[in-house]
Amino acid sequence: MDSRVQTAQSSTVWGMRGLYARVEEVLGNGVGQTDWSFGGRANVARQPTSDSRLIRQNSKALRILLVDDTFFVRRLVELILKHQGHHVVSVADGGQAVELALDPTFDVILMDLQMPVMNGWQATAAIRRQEQTLGRSRPVPIIALTAYTVPGNRERSLEAGMNDFLPKPIDAERLIETVELHGRRENEAH
């Protein structure tokens, strides 16, 4: 692995630990659902947009499959999304994601790119093949969630069958907006 990627991943993991602690602190203090967002420095960054408030008010609880090999990332994303009322199932590698994606009740999949067993691109390709084999008319939206943001990875992710791309460190408001936007579109299609 390229040393730049290793450095970026290491920095992200340590940044996530601080962000995770801050999220738990804020959520534990009873902050409301629509008045917080975290940037890479774990500070309250901005108020959500009126569009994001509308999405949240009109959204049903989504069922989300979260795929990431880093415990702190999984825990952070779980906290953010569960605080919004969503249901999150977490796994640590792409192989597990492919197995669980057979369940048609997931509204959205959040997929890390660099993982053991099977990376996010391979897992996405396998999930898309499964959907075709099973004759599913609507593929589940898959959103890349990664610190591996070198040039070309966004395009590679979209070409692999992903629907969107979110960089780490996690911006909570952007995460919520993106997940709810794709989940809402999926639900409107049914």
In short:
The protein has helices spanning 3-28, 50-58, 71-83, 94-100, 120-133, 153-159, 172-189, and strands spanning 63-67, 87-91, 108-111, 142-146, 164-167. The protein has 190 residues and is of the alpha/beta class.
Summarize the structure in words.
This protein is of the alpha/beta class. It is built from 7 helices and 5 strands. It has helices at 3-28, 50-58, 71-83, 94-100, 120-133, 153-159, 172-189, and strands at 63-67, 87-91, 108-111, 142-146, 164-167. A 5-stranded parallel beta sheet has the order 2-1-3-4-5, with helices on both faces. Helix 1 runs parallel beside helix 3 (71-83) and helix 4 packs parallel to helix 5 (120-133). The longest helix has 26 residues, at 3-28. The radius of gyration is 16 Å and the shape is globular.
Spell out the key features of this protein:
7 helices, five-stranded parallel β-sheet, alpha/beta
Total helical elements: 7
What's the total number of strands?
Answer: 5
User: Helices and strands: which structural class?
Assistant: alpha/beta
Distance between the termini: 42 Å
Shape: globular
Determine the strand fraction and express it as a percent band: 5-15%
Q: Whole-number average pLDDT?
A: 79
Strand order of the largest sheet: 2-1-3-4-5
What percent of residues adopt helix (DSSP H or I)? 40-55%
Q: What profile does the largest beta sheet have?
A: 5 strands, parallel
Pattern of helices and strands: HHEHEHEHEHEH
Structural Rg? 16 Å
**Spans with pLDDT under 50 lasting ≥5 residues?**
29-55
